[in-house]
Amino acid sequence: MNKRRPPFAAILMGFLLVAFSWSTPGTAQTLDEVYQKALTEGGTLNFYGTLAPNQASKILPVFEARFPGIKVNQIDATSDVLATRAITEARAGKTIADVFQASLETAIRIHEQGLFLEKLPPEAEAYPSNLKGSYWLAGEFDFIIAGWNTNLVKKQEEPKQFEDFAEPHWKGRLVAEPRDAELLIGLANHKYKSEDKAAALLKRIAANGVEFHKGHSQLAELLAGGQAAACLTCYSHHFPVRIKKGAPLGYLLSEGVGAITATAVFKSAPHPNTAWLFYRWVSSEEGQKVFSAAGRTPAHPKVDPVEKTRPEKIYPITDSDYKQYSKYDKVWKEIFKLR
What we know:
Layout: H1 8-23, H2 31-38, E1 44-49, H3 53-66, E2 71-76, H4 79-91, E3 99-103, H5 104-111, E4 137-149, E5 174-176, H6 182-191, H7 195-206, E6 211-212, H8 216-224, E7 230-235, H9 239-244, E8 249-251, E9 255-265, H10 272-283, H11 285-293, E10 313-317, H12 319-322, H13 325-336
Parallel strand pairs: 1-2, 1-3, 5-6, 5-7, 9-10
Antiparallel strand pairs: 3-9, 4-7, 4-8, 4-9
């Protein structure tokens, strides 16, 4: 007796389910299930990331211990160098990297070449909409905030917000980083929601004669050494370590501009399930706590940094902001008469 054939719709559905499982890495529901798939890929993760060596040594071994049999091969370089390398490799017809974690600005460059997987891990649900895109998820922050030398700035004149630096008693006492147009973007698009209001404030601050120095670490050292009274665009994570060593520093945590370090997976990653495992882990509360313990400022809303580096009000610079970066950079340079 002939068996009844299954209806065409059922056959088609079965085919689609099989195809989907092959084309989408990490379809398993738990990290451990993804881990089992990752173990079949050779035990290597090629990580293009900007983690400093002292922090990578505290983070990557934890991942390796959590998932035995997988070793992370980190290519450590600046964001620009990593982006150029990934794009050059793709043009040569090969993809070496599995995961990218560096500045959102450079992630956008790579995405414009069509190299990233257009998919977010389930852990992304815990993040607000301004900390994720179609292919990227915020991994951590660098916060642009204000700081000062407590020997040179009296208690009663300590700033409470960026607007305070427009006051005339700051004339000749301010330093900043010349490439920090993100401050203008954060004020214009997120605090004031008005480019005119943000530009007006910065023009008043510029009238106080801001002195510019390249390098955020250098700015922090100038403050600590008493060579400058206050900094308009310092990084928040540069202060706790120096204060612990006795530097006379104070810093503003009522508000700050958040430069996002984004995580994304390459569409043609040579180890797709391993890449997906790492993406999920670094985005989870578990992974974000490891980043925090290593001295980073995690992006996960439920994970606090170990040190006081996260401002109360955050103005994050998102992908839509970076698409207008050249316009704001021009205005920034015009306001402060930078070349």
